[in-house]
Amino acid sequence: MIKVEHLTKRYARNVAVNDISFEVEKGQIVGFLGPNGAGKTTTMRILTCFMPPSDGSAQVAGFDVIQSPMEVKRRVGYLPETPPLYPEMEVSEYLLFVGKLKGLGGNELKRRVDDVAGRCAVGDVRNKLISKLSKGYRQRVGLAQAILHNPEVLILDEPTSGLDPKQIIETRELIQQLSGDHTIILSTHILPEVEQICQKVIIIAQGKVVATDSVHNLTNRMRGSETVNVEVESRNGPLELTSVQQRLEQVAGVSRVLHKETRDSRLTFEVESLQGRVIRPEIARAVVESGWNLNELHTAAISLEEIFLQLTSVDAAKEAKQ
Ligand SMILES: Nc1ncnc2c1ncn2[C@@H]1O[C@H](COP(=O)(O)OP(=O)(O)OP(=O)(O)O)[C@@H](O)[C@H]1O
Ligand SMILES: [Mg+2]
Question: Which whole number is the average pLDDT over 189-209?
């Protein structure tokens, strides 16, 4: 549904997007992640024909953004970073106006405006001037105009930014409802949002794609070895640090044991496994059989957040450039 090949965008002083390629299949929700200035908005502007690329190509819904921009625009709904609103218009007046620009008319137009006003929860401000709306309501009107002509592809630049928590949940639900029939790319800085609603993630840093994968694969791929936090307590008298440490080091599959803290008669360790080894049951057995109490044993889970930080570090982006 979306195919980007060797896309590059140069500005006078810098390269905002540097030779990126990716594909999005029909019906998918894809999360576009990256730090500030990574090139997310630039890529989205190219995909919605707001700006031509300097190099490379992009196809949306089967049409090329340079050769057939009108065909692309007809099939794409776009929520820009700052929604394109006319402050002197009332909300319903604005939605009717945008609908006409998008080729809708008559009863069909009225029906669509009612539908999106309901879906985006702007019904109660229909007769308000846009200039009088709060930021969250403006965002909702922006989303309403993006889906007004029921486009096949939705490109949403930070759709939940500026919304209150209740509205964030409702917007995520709305986006999920729209998937299936629609293909959606959304950019965000909120990582749990990606984990909740996206099937696939594209991470970009400094204009380069540093990872494209499913959320599930990405977390698994990076996990590799497991880190386990262990707290051991003596049943009688003080514990000798070296003997506990040595016992943990002897457990099959353990690569490293790091002493973290001593508190009263309790010792805590960070134990790392070899690639792909499960070590928790053996650690539990070793501690208990040695006559110590096992107060705590849990995996220090690697989150999407950590993966993101690893992949978008300056070094990682440099590596990708080479
Ligand atoms: N009109 C412009 N002229 C010159 N440089 C620009 C222009 N627009 C963006 N840039 C530069 O291109 C790079 C990518 O910007 P872009 O807005 O695409 O990032 P982004 O990933 O959307 O960031 P954010 O998370 O802050 O929205 C930045 O270095 C930015 O300064
Ligand atoms: Mg942006």
Answer: 87
